[in-house]
Design brief:
By secondary structure, this protein is an all-alpha fold. Helix content is 67%, strand content 0%. The protein contains 7 helices and no strands.
Amino acid sequence: MKKKVTQHYVDNKKFLEAMVIHKEKVNNAKENNKTKPDVTNYIGECFLKIANHLSYRPNFINYTYRDDMISDGIENCLQYMNNFNPEKSKNPFAYFTQIIYYAFIRRIQKEKKQTLVKQKMIANAGVENIMDQHEGDDSQYRSQLLDFLQRNQKIEEPEKKKKDKK
C-alpha cells in the first residue's frame, strides 16, 4: 500500500529557503548601508495563506472582524520576520503561525474591550435619552429597539441600579 501524500498549503522547505535568502539580502543591505529589500511575493503569499487558514479554525471562525485579525497577523509577520533565525529553527511555518495566532488573540481582546466600552456608554447615558434625540414619527421602532437593547445587552437605567443596590 502506498503512503498517501498530503498537499500542504505552505511548503515549509521552500518557505525556509525563501526566508534564508531574504535574511541574507537583509544582512548584505545592512553591511552596505542600503535600504532593506522588499519582501518577496512568495513570502507574502505564505503569510497570507497561514493567516487565512488559521482564521478558519473553530476558535476564530465566527468573529465579524476576522479580516482585521488576518491583517494584524500579516502586519506582525512583516514586523518580526527579521527576528526569524534559521540557525535556531528550521520551521518558519510554526514560527509565523505563532505570531499570527497571538495577533488574533490580541485583536479579539481589543474588540471585546471596545464592545464593553460601548455597552457602558449606552448604559450610563440612558438608552431612553439616546433614543429621544432622534425626531420623527418612528416611536414604534424606537420602543422596539429599546426593548431589544435592554433584553440582549442587559442595559438598565443608572437610577434603577442605584435603587436595586439599596
